[in-house]
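Translate structure to sequence.
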């Protein structure tokens, strides 16, 4: 069985079309203005217009309030909310109920205690996403920094929710990352870009082909 892949930070029709054609299971759209990958609700709606049913459209938010999320959902057909900030378990539970959407909670990993902390979200989130902790600098984004963490930290663990591996993945690193972590789903953004926010269509194709070949 192949590994399910999410291409995140999509902002052009060409990148969306390439991801769909390559077999992406999830398409990620960033609604966090500081990110070079950010899109408006109207643009996301246009990009989603031709996406076939069966491919999940994921909206990435960072500590967003209800009005911000609601404004996106009023325009863009987002299936899954991805929370990539410091949202508490109670915030995840509340948003899941309020917006009637599954929630994927990103958990920043750098040490064993971070993995233990992820358990707080198992009862409230529909899916977990393990990402590398951002670097300690003022301009660092919550994700999409091209950094990997030690995959052995999550290896061999049993989670009550589906989970996805993220953080610094590239087509070259993918086989080893999946082998060590045991991931059945993976997420990539910077690893399929030529510049921050600029997706490379050939890299998208290669990454998805590699994911299909694993299992």
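Result:
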């Amino acid at each position: 069985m192949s590994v399910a892949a999410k291409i995140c930070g999509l902002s052009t029709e060409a990148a969306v079309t390439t991801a769909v054609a390559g077999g992406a299971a999830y398409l990620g759209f960033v609604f966090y203005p500081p990110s070079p990958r950010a899109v408006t609700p109207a643009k996301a709606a246009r990009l989603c217009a031709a996406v076939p049913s069966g491919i999940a459209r994921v909206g990435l938010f960072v500590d967003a309030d209800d009005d911000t999320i609601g404004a996106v959902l009023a325009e863009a057909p987002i299936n899954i909310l991805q929370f990539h900030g410091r949202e508490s378990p109670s915030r995840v539970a509340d948003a899941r109920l309020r917006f009637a959407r599954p929630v994927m909670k990103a958990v920043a990993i750098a040490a064993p205690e971070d993995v233990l902390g992820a358990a707080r979200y198992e009862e409230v989130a529909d899916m977990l996403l393990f990402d590398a902790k951002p670097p300690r600098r003022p301009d660092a984004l919550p994700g999409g920094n091209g950094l990997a963490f030690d995959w052995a930290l999550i290896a061999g663990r049993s989670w009550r929710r589906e989970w996805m591996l993220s953080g610094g993945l590239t087509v070259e690193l993918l086989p080893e990352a999946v082998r060590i972590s045991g991931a059945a789903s993976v997420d990539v953004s910077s690893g399929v870009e030529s510049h921050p926010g600029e997706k490379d269509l050939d890299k998208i194709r290669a990454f998805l082909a590699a994911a299909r070949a694993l299992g």
